[in-house]
Description:
This protein has helices at 2-18, 23-49, 64-77, 80-88, 95-119, 142-169, 176-202, 215-241, 248-277, 285-292, 301-319, 321-324, 327-345, 369-397. The protein has 405 residues and is mostly helical. It has one domain (2-397): Formate dehydrogenase/DMSO reductase domain (Formate dehydrogenase/DMSO reductase fold). The model has no long low-confidence stretch (mean pLDDT 86).
Amino acid sequence: xxRFKVFKSLVRDSLDTITQGSRKYHLWMAALTFMMxxxxxxxxxxxDEGLSVTGMTDRVSWGLYISNFTFLVGVAAAAVMLxxxxxxxxxxxxxxxxxxxxxxxxxxxxxxxAFVIAxxxxxxxxxxxxxxxxxxxxxxxxxxxxxxxxxxxxxxxxTIPLYILFRHYQGKEAKSKVYIPGxxxxxxxxxxxxxxxxxxxxxxxxxxxxxNALLGPRFLASAFAAGPALIILVLxxxxxxxxxxxxxxxxxxxxxxxxxxxxxxxxxxxxxxxKEFYAPTHHSESAYYLFFGLHGKDALLPWIWTAIxxxxxxxxxxxxxxxxxxxxxxxxxCFILFIAIWIEKGFGLIVPGFIPGPYGKIAEYxxxxxxxxxxxxxxxxxxxxxxxxxxxxIGIEIGKLRYKK
Length: 405
């Protein structure tokens, strides 16, 4: 009964905290709310007219929604790069950032599930994903494995930080015997959510572009580059706009993680390009379409030839110690690396898998305004969720929010 009373007080104090702030904070939340409303309006059109209002067709049935879903799975998994050194290896330098990273993982998972709902056409078909009620088809379907690991990872990333914050809210230290087992599980679970997503694509025999043994490892490498890169950018904003102090050495250690992951990702990219173009077969047509166009069709060329130079530039900048330790340069490198991997794991991975079709026909995909509106609305939802979680967590960690007996 007492715990329920404390939790009720925590919820009340959290609501007071997230409804108060500076003018910049209120403008930020108002902008996110406006974008969510635009997204809801676009989604209402999609509900009314169906998926025909999107750029997807029976030829290219996965587009902007699944591209963002695939990318955000990696962002969610990246939280493990802070969880493992903090909770498992007892590295105190990561301790300041770990709750921020887990909050980012929760927001990313919320967006993942929202993109799945958008891609399914509407929430009315979600009952198919309920075991024993819908057509769940477990364990034969890789999609059902993806649903399970995503929801399981969301549960882990909510419960562990919630327990730690709940204890800190009362002025007590969290008991390691309670959260350490969950931290160990989250390390393996984070790897699982990305590998299962990669296996989902690899298991489609009719799509040779995805039948690549490096797809799973490269998913992990790109995730551990883009996710921590975003965490660094978020920590930079928190350092400049709140009283939550994050030491330079914390950001430098995360930057080292980004650097190693970006280098591995680039090496794997070169390996894939060699395999596709040194001794090409008819299965290389998707890669040719992506990088050079095919039969006069070249809608993806501007995307991929923006991503590749940005990826190389960011990796080169991060590789040099002096450049990486200059925080302005570091933030720039993290930003362009995040954009590059978003393009590469989105349009550069999902759409080319459908082109050309089984009979050699090329049907290009271009997202419509409705898709873009829904996508921006979902990204705004994720930013809104993260802002609420981060503001509450920071208030508790700096001692501003405490339970009043």
